[in-house]
Amino acid sequence: MFHPVSTFIGLRYLRGRSGDRFSRFVSYMSTAGITIGVMSLITVLSVMNGFEAQLKGRILGVLPQAIVSQHDGKTPRTEQAPEFIQAMSTAAHPEPIVQGEAVIQSAKQLSAGLLIGIKPSDHDPVENYVVAGRLSKLKSGAYQVFVGSTLARSMDIGPGDKVRLMVTSASQFTPLGRIPSQRIFTVAGIYNTGSDVDGQLMLTHIDDAARLMRLKSGTMTGWRLFFDDPFVVGELSQQPLPQGWQWQDWRDQRGELFQAVRMEKNMMGLMLGLIVGVAAFNIISALIMVVMEKQAEVAILKTQGMTDRQVMSIFMVQGASSGIVGALIGGLLGVLLANNLNSLLESAGIALFSVGGSLPVVINPVQILVVVTLAVMLSLLATLFPSYRASSVKPAEALRYE
């Protein structure tokens, strides 16, 4: 805790004398630099959080987040999942699933993607993105399939159209050679998540998918797990499973994408954090100028009984005050700017998306607290050297020519 006299003098020096305009200007620029740095950092991190949350919802909300299966990928299908699987699935009960790579062919185009067979349900995550048809109306033996909007557009197909699905992993040898397992399916609906999943994922009834992949009756790929936060798979995958069971999750297909997003967010945070660092160095230069100017006054204070520690506290109060004020104002402005970013862009006539849409913004209070705290600590560290120089002033030498 600073001595009250040191605090009073330090705040007095912060305001500066009316004639000392240059020192006051340098002090104000240090505060402004920290304000701009903290504001920019909070705004950019909030937007990056929004993009990450949007990807998490649109991609990981549709793809199977995790599948627990037998080692050979052929799991006996039972009414309920084993207890250890039910304990892992925290957001919903585990569901049976059949999964495999497939080729889809229309009259005009040929494409490859991921085919998953599910039990029809109104609570399936994909149902939230269906724009045509009802996922719960899939029937066993009807050979119906749901495709994404991107895939439907590229293949020029719609509800009611016929497509051919082929699975090369279930091919069989014939006198004409090796022929993949194939079947004519009817497009029963279309979903749209606004991500690249729309061009790859195909959904059908679990029984139809099992027959297409030539699985034995009562056999499936594994149990599909559901989580509130898909990123918990990293921790859950480390848990030991009973013998004969294996774990796979979304990281096998989309791990690199989310690693790239996280790395980009970290790099943006690092680059904008350097702005705060530059502003902290401005505090050093401003304090050194003040120390050089105030040597005679420091000497007088020492002759009146002020200790080195109290003198050091004066300049620490002056420098840290600039950092605290700048960090608090920057944090407040950053939250306001992030909340109103889309409105400001719209009023300025800036359109970042060709077909409507807005920047996703997610403000993390813990993140803001960390940014503001680090800015204050950095500002406090920047005051140590100039403050130590001030406390080292020798009264006799400083007053020799006064």
Q: If you average the pLDDT, what whole number results?
A: 79
CA radius of gyration is 32 Å
Task: Characterize the overall form.
Answer: elongated
Q: What kind of sheet is the major sheet?
A: 6 strands, mixed, barrel
**Spatial strand order of the main sheet:** 3-4-9-6-8-7
CA-to-CA gap between the ends?
33 Å
**Structural class label:** alpha+beta
* Helix and strand sequence: HHEEHEEEEHEEEHEEHEHHHHHHH
Total strands: 12
Beta content comes to 15-25%
Number of helices: 13
The helicity comes to 40-55%
Low-confidence stretches: none
Descriptive overview:
The structure is a single chain. This protein is of the alpha+beta class. It is 49% helix and 20% strand. It contains 13 helices and twelve strands. It has helices at residues 4-15, 21-58, 83-88, 149-155, 206-212, 233-236, 251-293, 295-303, 308-339, 341-347, 365-382, 384-391, 395-398, and strands at 66-70, 75-76, 95-105, 110-118, 130-132, 144-148, 162-174, 177-191, 201-205, 219-220, 222-225, 245-249. Strands 3-4-9-6-8-7 form a six-stranded mixed beta barrel. Strands 2-10 form a two-stranded antiparallel ribbon. The longest helix has 43 residues, at 251-293. The chain is elongated, with a radius of gyration of 32 Å. The mean pLDDT is 79.
Strand-helix topology:
Elements: H1 4-15, H2 21-58, E1 66-70, E2 75-76, H3 83-88, E3 95-105, E4 110-118, E5 130-132, E6 144-148, H4 149-155, E7 162-174, E8 177-191, E9 201-205, H5 206-212, E10 219-220, E11 222-225, H6 233-236, E12 245-249, H7 251-293, H8 295-303, H9 308-339, H10 341-347, H11 365-382, H12 384-391, H13 395-398
Parallel strand pairs: 4-9, 6-8
Antiparallel strand pairs: 1-11, 1-12, 2-10, 3-4, 3-7, 3-11, 5-8, 6-9, 7-8
